[in-house]
User: Fold these one by one.
Assistant:
Number 1:
Amino acid sequence: VKVRVETLEQATIVIAEGRLDFSAAGNFQRQVEQALAGTEHAPRALIIDCADLEYISSAGLRVFLLAARSAQRAGQAFAVCSLRQSVREVFDLSGFSRVMSVLPDRAAALAQLPGGPE
Amino acid sequence: MNERRTSVPSEAAQLPVLAQFLHEFWSAAALPPTQSLAFEIALEEVFMNVVTHGTPAGSQGRVEVCLALADNSLTLAVEDDGPPFDPLTLPAPDVNASLDQRQVGGLGVYFVRQLMDAVSYRRVGPRNQLRMTKQVAR
C-alpha cells in the first residue's frame, strides 16, 4: 500500500492506495500512528481516504480498528471515506461500518467533523 | 475441469506469491475480476492462519494451494502439514460489539464462511485440508 498524508486546518488526511493485506499492514499502521500523533501537535481529526484502496483483509482492518480506538481515547475525530465496492463489502461484513464513521466522500467526512461547515 | 496447484513454505513472505498465483489463474480462466474478492480474502486469511497458528515453532512447514474450476463452481483447497487443526471450530467474532470491545481475531475465518458457498475441513493423513467452494458467474 502507498500512503500520502495531507494536512488541512481541520484534519489530517491519510490517503491509502493499493492493497492492504497482511504484508502491508505493519507499515500502514506505523504511518497512521504517526499521522494521529502529528508533527508539532496532534490533529483534531484524522480521515482515512480509501478512494484508491483496492483490497483489504482482516489484517488491514485491524489497523482501522486500532486507529479508531486510539483517536477516541485521545478525543480526536476519526472517519473513513470513499470506499470502493470491494473494500466496502469487507467493512460491512466485519461490522466496522457500524462502529466507525464511514462516509461516501471526503467532503462528507470533513462536513461531519466537530466545528466543520454545516 | 481447469486445475492449478502450487506449494510454498509456510511463511508470511509467501503471501504475495499466492496472491499472484490466484491472479494468474483468474486471468487465464477469463473469470470476471469483480468476483475475485471472496477468493483473495479466503486465500490470505486461511494461509495466514496456517502461518501464525498451524506451524509449530522452529519447524518449516509447507502449504499446498489448489484452484479447480468445474462448470461455474470454483474450489480453493489449502493443505498444510501442521498438527490437526480445524479452523471452523473457532468461535465466531461478535460483529455487533462496540468499538472498545471489538476483536479482530476470528474475523478471517468469519469472512471465509460468509463469502464462500461451502467450506469444509478434513484431516487427510498427515495434513489439514480446508476446501472452499463458490459459484462464479462467467
Note: The helical segments of chain B are 15-28, 37-54, 107-115.
Number 2:
Amino acid sequence: VKRLLYFAAKLYPPRWRERYGTEFEALLSEEHFGLKDWLDVWKGALAMRLRGSGVITAIFLAAGTLAGGFVSWRIPERYSSTATLLVQGPNPASTAEAVRRLVEASQSLDSLSEVIQGSRGDRLLEPLVSKLRTAIRVDLAPSTNANWTTLRITFQDRDRNEAAREANALTERMILDNLRWAYANAQRGVTSQSRLVVLAPAAVSPRPMHRDRLRIIGWGCVIGLGIGLFLAWFWPQLPRQRRAS
Amino acid sequence: VLTANLITFYDITYNVMKESDPTILVLASLAAGDKHGYAMMMDIESFAGIRLGPGTLYGAITRLEERGWIRPIGAAGRRQAYRLTNAGREYLKERIASLDQVVRTALGRLKEA
C-alpha cells in the first residue's frame, strides 16, 4: 500500500508537489495507511488537478452538448409504427416453431423486398433493403400462457405513413406465410394448425421518435466532459508560458 | 408558513453542510497550537472522532494557506508545521458562532416537539 500511496502522491500537479510534496510524503511515511487512504489521496490528486481548470471542463461539456444538439437537430425525424400479432398453436412446441418460422420469414430478403415493392413501387434497390432491415424490429413479448406468444413488428421511417404501411405489409406477408404453411400441412394430413391473429394493426405514428436525439445529445455531453476532464488533468503540467500563449 | 419552514430548513442544512468542511476541523486543531500534518490528523481524530485521509487533510491545508488563514512555520526535518493566523482565528470564531446558532435552534425545536 505504501508504494501505491507514493505513486498516487505523484499524481498531484507539479506545482503543488513543489510546495507540499516533501511534507506530504513525510505524512505518508508516518503510519501504515490503508486502501481507504489510498483512495483519499487519489481523490485529493484529482481535486487538485481540476482546481482552476473547472472552466475548461465546463467549456468542453457545453461544447459537446451543443455539438450533440446540432447533430441531433440535423438528423431527420423518424416515425415508429407497431403492429401486434398473436400466435397460438395446439401446444407450446408448435407455437414456438410457428413463431420461429414467422420471424425468420419476416426478416428474409424476399419478404423485405416484397414489403418495399408493395409500399414504394419500383424503387427497390439493394441499399434500401439493407436500410429497411435496420428499420424493422420484431419483438417477442413475454408469453403468459405457454400456448401463445405475442409478436410486435415495429417499423421506423422518415415518412409517418410509410412506417405504418410497411408494418402492415409485413403483417400481411406473415399471415400469407402462415396460410401457405397451413395449406402445406393440410396436404400432408396435419390438421392441428397454429393460428395467427392481428391484435392491433399498425397505426400512423402521431409524433416522431425523440429517443435517438436524446441519446446523441447525451453522447455529446459525455464526450465533451471526457475531453474536458482529460485536458483539465494535464493542464497544470503545461508550462506557464505555453498556457498563456 | 411553509416557505418560512423551507427557508429555515435550508439555512440549517446549509450551515451543517458547511461545518462538515474539513477546513473547520483543521482550524479547530490549530487553535490549540502549532502542528504538522500528522499531529493534526491525530488531534482531529481525538477531539472530533473523524479520521481525515491524507488527501483530504492536505486539500484543506492548501485551501487554508491560500486564504491566509494558516501559515507555515519552521520545518522540522521533512515535516512542516502550521500556525493559525489572526484572520483564521476570526473566521473560526464566526463559523463556531454560526454552528452554535444552528445547534441552539435545533435543540429548541426538539424541545417544542
Note: Chain B has a mean pLDDT of 84.
